[in-house]
Write a structure and sequence with these properties.
Blueprint (H helix, E strand, L loop, with lengths): L21 E2 L2 E4 L2 E4 L4 E11 L5 E10 L3 H15 L5 H4 L2 H16 L2 H12 L3 H29 L3 E3 L2 E9 L2 E5 L7 H12 L3 E5 L12 H7 L5 E3 L4 H10 L5 E5 L2 H8 L9 E5 L4 E5 L5 H13 L9 E7 L3 H14 L1 E2 L7 E3 L7 H14 L3 E2 L7 E2 L2 E2 L2 E4 L6 H4 L6 E7 L3 H9 L2 E2 L1 E5 L3 H11 L5 E4 L15 E2 L2 E2 L4 H7 L1 E9 L5 H7 L4
Parallel strand pairs: 1-5, 8-9, 8-11, 9-10, 11-12, 13-14, 13-23, 14-21, 15-16, 20-21, 23-24
Antiparallel strand pairs: 2-3, 4-5, 6-7, 7-27, 12-26, 17-20, 18-19, 22-25
Length: 526
């Protein structure tokens, strides 16, 4: 099959078919599913089908409400009232009761696995195994969060005594959380924010991304059935039109956003009481791989191909720069291209497919602009068909040699472009990572243990995670996930997220005789 044939097969298997276009009317405010009667936004699939003229074009999957300020403020009011300065039903609910609500939600969510997986394939062209993995990993994350929360409750039940003062140190809710989700992991990264926020007693206003959104319609009933009124409110539409009015009120306590710094900065300009707002931000990254002269090339190539082109490079944790020592770069490039050519491209439900169409409508043009800029600065595409565009599909382009005069050196491509940078001294990649606006992860490839021991302490000052002989990645979810500089604010992992969406509290009382009865009573198990 040639790249040109990617959309020729329109005989979709029965198990992946969905009815479209799907006009999604409902939204959730204050425990009530309401029907939208205003303007709608069209949601197009990156999977192209033939129109009436026999031409391939993006498939109209459905529509979502294009909500405005009035509805946004209604949702915010519901969340504010449900929290009620910490006196609402949800923040005062016993931990075991909140856990029961979330467990009920998980039970209902599991029933929607097949339909949610289909939406992920159709709407963001995530392959079938990756879509299934995103769903299953999300369920695991929620269950692990429940377990971590139980451990937290147990640890916080202990009474401490120092310097004549008894105290119980715990964690409590922050208030109202505005959660803005990404398109690339619209299920997993959304619930990595929402679930810890909810279980700690916060209330939530949730707005999905404009791509990777239709699956949310499958969960609205589960939200409604599982949580008290106003605890979770779900809006749809353009981020600026929906989120900005909420932020302007100064009534949210936490802004949880996974996306890009441009969106985050635009929102933050509207915050009236900046010091009162806690930020939970997962933003861009420009993760590098550094392949040293003594690296196992086969291992390094395999990890770099997977790391740079998994889900077409549309992951903040993707490897987006590959520094290769000059002495081995020619062999590395040859092996990399050979490994790349093995990757199957096609539609997301095709068996073994690794490369799929791109969801964002403007992304193919943006990637071409990066390619043109690199070529104008003396880089070449060194793989066959590199950068070839067929509608929404872009075949990976390996660019070499890349240097700091090119946009691709500095900008997060978030797509299937692989810049390879030769270096002769380790100080060159170290300097580049240090100067970068981002600081999430780095991958070091070497078999020299002593040399690695020298480099690792340097890298931990520049990025938040150092991977040895493996690609960059988020998981396992029990490990901290964060970033330096413009890559992140706050930490998201199973345990850390509970702390991120809460604050330390202390109940203290001096150990005087007339306080003994009070101590015995208030420090009993609640």
């Amino acid at each position: 099959m040639s790249v040109e044939d990617i959309f020729d097969n329109n005989n979709f298997p029965g198990e992946v078919k969905i009815e479209f276009p799907k006009k999604h009317h409902n939204y959730l405010i204050n425990g009530e599913l309401k029907q939208w009667n205003g303007d709608f936004l069209d949601i197009f699939s990156p999977i192209c089908t033939k129109n009436s003229k026999g031409e391939f074009e993006r498939t109209l999957l459905g529509t979502i409400p294009r909500m405005k300020e009035e509805v946004s403020l209604e949702a915010l009011a519901a969340a504010v009232n449900a929290y009620d300065f910490g006196r609402g039903e949800w923040p005062l609910m016993k931990p075991k009761e909140r856990i029961a609500c979330i467990e009920n939600f998980v039970k209902l969510m599991k029933q929607k696995r097949d339909s949610i997986v289909k939406f992920l394939m159709w709407e963001i062209a995530k392959s079938l195994p990756e879509s299934q993995n995103e769903f299953d990993r999300t369920i695991t994350y929620i269950n692990d969060t429940i377990s971590a929360y139980k451990e937290l409750i147990h640890d916080n039940s202990k009474v401490q005594f120092y310097d004549g003062v008894y105290a119980k140190v715990g964690r409590d809710s922050l208030g109202v959380v505005l959660c803005l989700a990404p398109y690339n992991f619209p299920l997993n990264e959304t619930f990595c924010m929402i679930i810890p926020a909810l279980i700690m007693g916060n209330t939530v206003v949730y707005k999905p991304a404009e791509q990777g959104v239709l699956f949310v319609s499958e969960l609205l009933d589960a939200f409604t059935e599982s949580f008290p009124k106003g605890v979770i409110n779900v809006l749809f539409g353009n981020g600026n039109e929906v989120a900005t009015p909420i932020v302007k009120t100064g009534k949210i306590n936490v802004l949880a956003l996974i996306g890009n710094s441009k969106s985050a900065n635009a929102l933050l300009q509207n915050v009236p009481n900046r010091n009162r707002l806690k930020l939970v931000l997962g933003l861009e990254a420009k993760n590098s791989a550094i392949v040293l002269p003594d690296a196992d090339l086969d291992k390094a190539v395999a990890e770099c191909v997977l790391g740079s082109l998994g889900f077409n490079g549309q992951r903040c944790t993707a490897i987006k720069m590959i520094f290769v020592h000059q002495s081995i770069v020619e062999r590395f490039n040859q092996k990399f291209i050979k490994e790349l050519e093995i990757l199957k491209y096609g539609l997301p439900w095709e068996e073994g497919v690794k490369l799929t169409p791109l969801p964002q409508i403007n992304k193919p043009k943006y990637l071409q602009d990066l390619i043109d800029d690199a070529k104008n600065n003396n880089a070449e595409i060194i793989n066959k068909d590199g950068g070839k565009r067929i509608k929404s599909f872009v075949y990976p382009a390996v660019l070499f040699p890349v240097n700091d005069s090119m946009r691709i050196f500095h900008e997060e491509q978030f797509g299937p472009l692989v810049p390879i940078i030769p270096f002769s001294d380790i100080e060159e990649p170290i300097k580049a990572i240090n100067k970068s606006n981002y600081g999430q992860q780095v991958s070091l490839f070497s078999e020299n243990h002593e040399y690695l021991k020298q480099i690792i302490p340097i890298m931990t000052k520049l990025v938040s995670r150092v991977n040895i002989n493996s690609k960059a990645q988020r998981g396992p979810d029990n490990y901290p996930f964060t970033g330096r500089k413009d890559s992140a604010i706050s930490t998201l992992s199973v345990k850390d997220a509970l702390e991120t969406f809460s604050i330390n509290t202390v109940i203290a009382i001096k150990s005087k005789d007339n306080n003994k009865e009070i101590i015995d009573n208030i420090f009993t198990d609640e």
